[in-house]
Specification:
Elements: H1 21-44, E1 48-53, E2 62-63, E3 68-73, E4 93-95, E5 110-111, E6 118-124, E7 138-144, E8 146-148, E9 151-152, E10 156-168, E11 181-187, H2 191-199, E12 203-208
Antiparallel strand pairs: 1-3, 2-4, 4-5, 6-11, 7-10, 7-12, 8-9, 10-11
């Protein structure tokens, strides 16, 4: 005889769903932490591609892709201040002021040929240059006119803040010269006075504009 025929009904317990508010709060906290971490990582990874120089650059130089490298940097809202790869034309850009080696290339440091009214000259100096002077540095060019009998007048500045293009190492043939040779970038308006000083045998000296601070 079956259990139903005996009048016995089996014990069927209802399953109830257990709900704990603390469980929901925990899920919310975990989700918030994940979102926060993702936001932080995203903010830290907001780097942009900008152009940097391979070596020191002086005004008047034309920079092309081979002269530059692309670097990933985080510059915040200042990315508009620097040149990016898409801004570099095939013919390159003309530099209007000195840029150090490895420096990010500022938009303010490039322009058209009309913006650079300078030229280079090689000068024979009568005195040695400090070891701190290198390419891209700035020199005040002084000239002392000869007054005869090996005497010179008081020196005056004929070119302020000329940019050093290169320091020329003399060979054995030129070793008897009185001082170093330096190629500098000067305004075209100063060319006449420089050539006059050279033609008149004036003593030329160069003094660094940006001297290192002694601590």
């Amino acid at each position: 005889m079956s259990e139903q025929s005996r009048g016995h009904v089996p014990d069927r317990r209802r399953r109830t769903f257990w709900f704990d508010p603390r469980f929901v709060i925990g899920l919310v906290l975990v989700a918030s932490s994940v979102v926060g971490v993702v936001a932080v990582i995203g903010a830290n990874d907001s780097s942009v591609s900008v152009l940097a120089t391979q070596g020191a650059v002086v005004p008047g130089e034309t920079l092309r892709s081979d002269d530059l490298r692309t670097v990933q940097v985080r510059v915040g809202g200042a990315q508009e201040l620097y040149l990016v790869p898409d801004d570099l034309p095939a013919q390159g850009v003309l530099v209007t002021r000195a840029v150090a080696a490895g420096e990010l290339l500022p938009r303010s440091a490039v322009g058209s040929a009309e913006a650079v009214d300078v030229t280079t000259v090689v000068l024979q100096l009568t005195s040695r240059l400090p070891e701190s002077v290198n390419e891209g540095g700035r020199l005040d060019i002084w000239a002392a006119r000869t007054s005869g009998s090996g005497e010179f007048e008081a020196p005056v500045v004929i070119v302020p803040a000329a940019t050093v293009v290169r320091l020329i190492v003399e060979d054995a043939v030129m070793g008897s010269s009185s001082g170093p040779l330096v190629e500098v970038l000067i305004p075209r308006s100063a060319v006449a006075s420089v050539l006059e000083s050279v033609a008149n045998g004036s003593a030329l000296s160069a003094i660094p504009v940006d001297l290192p601070v002694q601590e």
